[in-house]
Write a structure and sequence with these properties.
Radius of gyration: 31 Å
Distance between the termini: 105 Å
Number of helices: 6
Number of strands: 3
CATH architecture of the domain at 14-128: Alpha-Beta Complex
Order of helices and strands: HEHHHEEHH
CATH class of the domain at 14-128: Alpha Beta
Helix content: 55-70%
Shape: extended
Length: 179
Amino acid sequence: MRHNISGRKLNRKTSHRLSLLKNLSKSLIIHEQIETTLPKAKDLRPFVEKILTIGKINTLAARRKVYSYLGDKKLVDKVFQILGKRYQKRNGGYVRILKSGFRYGDSAPKAIIELVERDVNVKGLEDKIREKHSKKEIENSTSDNTATSEPKKPDNLAVKKGKDQITDDALDKKPSKKD
């Protein structure tokens, strides 16, 4: 009998399911809005809300508890410094789920899960920063290459000698007639 057993198995073993929820919660905290399937979003909601509720209490034990879920110091700092302060006066209900149609390949119901009162500029910010740094690295590497090895202009005499050598080599390689 299944008395008081909540949550879905999502066709995964327990360890895989927990790592899935941890990864989804990391992505949700970083971007504050993600798109996933509806059953995953429904299972993710209580997982993230527990983390955010703990994040409102700024103690060492609470930080360690959130770190055990997320495993990243930057995310723990964001939970306590930004999200904890944002939801200080809110008694739950930190996450919103919006249905967003069906996936093309297998018609699975999709959902957008987002934090309530989210910062719109956060979504994709990490990607923008990474792209900006990669462009700077590319520009720096190309400017370093052009500064160190400037292309030399060919000498007219060397070009003429090269042409003469080619014609001389071609003359030497003519087949000779044997009588």
